[in-house]
Amino acid sequence: MEERKGHIGVTTDNIFPIIKKFLYSDHEIFLRELVSNAVDATQKLKTLSSLGEFKGELGDTAVRVSLDKEKGTITISDRGIGMTEDEINKYINQIALSSANEFLDKYKNDANAIIGHFGLGFYSAFMVSKQVEIVTLSHKEGSEAVKWSCDGTPEFTLSKADKTERGTDIILYIDDENKNFLEQGEIDKLLKKYCRFLPVSIVFGKKTEWKDGKSVETEEDNVINDTTPLWTRKPADLKDEDYKKFYQDLYPFTDEPLFWIHLNVDYPFKLTGVLYFPKLKSNVDPHKNKIQLYSNQVFITDSVEGIVPEFLTLMHGVIDSPDIPLNVSRSYLQSDHNVKKISSHITKKVADRLEDIFKNDRPQFEEKWDDLKIFIEYGMLTDEKFYDRAQKFCLLKNTDGNIFTFEEYKTLISGNQTDKEGTLIYLYTNNREEQYSYINAAKDHGYDVLLLDGQLDVHLAGMLESKFEKSRFVRVDSDIVNNLIKKEDIADADLTDKQKEELNETFKSQLPKIEKVEFSFDYKPLNENIQPIQITQNEYTRRMKEMAAMQTGMSFYGEMPDNFTMVINTNHPLVKKIITDVDGKDVEAVSKYASENPIIKQLVDLALLSNNMLKGESLSNFIKRSTELITGK
């Protein structure tokens, strides 16, 4: 053939500057696109061979990536179907753009919406190259080798080439701004990121070994990918060890997963993959972006929020689907009807798996509940359909470590924890140690107390109140034990307003100053054996503040001071004496009396200490005073 020159079939002379400008932020994907094209060419040849349409020997079908630092080139070579001159004209020289204005108007605000949609996968090469060459020989009998060359303008050169083996070499002359791609470590990193599981062997240089105190190349090809990753194989052919090993390959130095799900769907969409339940403990955010999305074994992204529901982003693993609609760069997801179907299916499969484990091996499920809990609660809070399924296997744990389903626990407490209005009261603690005395008081009344100490438990309690019929969740320190589950009204103490004012001043004068904390006082004629002073906090305001700490848009509650009530037991002997001592005194005399009576300060501090509110100097003074009261010195 004679050498000829021509113009690439685009409708604007500015196509290459546009590619460079719009795709620059995603420039590393050039390698993914070109290697993927090479794999496609190889797979097509294998298909033709299997159909008998290609009679030759397949031979070595590996795709090879090589660097030449001196020449400043990266070469991607395959032994696939190759191209004829006509095919170069069709697939390389014609970029299907209807008009320059339409192109610019549509994509000027979408930096990643170019490659692929208009057959521009190959043209991503120009993001990093000052010149690109294609040297190719078609698999068709009688074909001639062709060389195509372009320097980043619409002008190209097409000429005869010396190539004797079928396939295609793409040679990139890297420009000055992208010399980092001529470093072996950089290319190795990108190949492992994007091409780690491609279905055709990808070779990058030779393997090395340590010899005579240095690293030397061997004769063995350095194959960087696993062509048959675990999710492409049949579950029946795999053992637990295979799943665990794959997990460790994906996430080195992490704990073993709790469970896993092998996805294998052919209809109405194609979807494969393996999803793992990691040990989440109590933190949500740091574990996101651990699901890797692939399309035909090509890595696309690890930001899969558009593909799976929010709570499933806590899972780890791999999803592979050619049917997930990606935008043209294959780097960003587009939400559409098909995506929603896939998302719903994954949610169903996750719920099925959890329910299956619960039904068939409840002891194992309970053993791993503390790790599974945050995942399941997150799902119930954010996905109504998942809640409907998960309420069957979501568990509640009490302070004794016993575990119940929702129905089991309702049956347990219905007899004793229903108040006078017929409302079922779920008592709970969020800190078994700090609220120990309140828990004991509740147990002494025959009540059971749940342990809700997880990151999402306060949100779950709010949701369950709306889901459960005539039920309420109440923290054990939100009121005195007699008021937690009101069987009957408790009368106020028989005190005059003047007496209450005197007592308010008595106890208030001995309170330490605690930043953003306010106290009010209430007087109840409780059993004389009950503590003289108890501190409680209203359930609603406390819960709002806890939720505000985790949720934007609730900062109003977060800025409010903490309001506590000091409940004074007027039947306690020490309180009775104080009532008698201050009766009839004016404010000044009451303050003087309180400051000179160490018992009053001690009672106040004991109440604060039981709520973990006595700290610093106040705690030190309490310890010193306790010693003095014991020794009489």
TrEMBL record:
Any one Gene Ontology molecular-function term assigned to this protein's record: ATP hydrolysis activity
Regions that span the bilayer: none
UniProt keyword Cytoplasm present: yes
Domain of life of the native organism: Bacteria
Residue ranges annotated for the Histidine kinase/HSP90-like ATPase domain, each copy included: 26-178
Gene3D superfamilies recorded: 3.30.230.80, 3.40.50.11260, Heat shock protein 90, C-terminal domain, Histidine kinase-like ATPase, C-terminal domain
Family to which the UniProt record says this protein belongs: Belongs to the heat shock protein 90 family.
Descriptive protein name: Chaperone protein HtpG
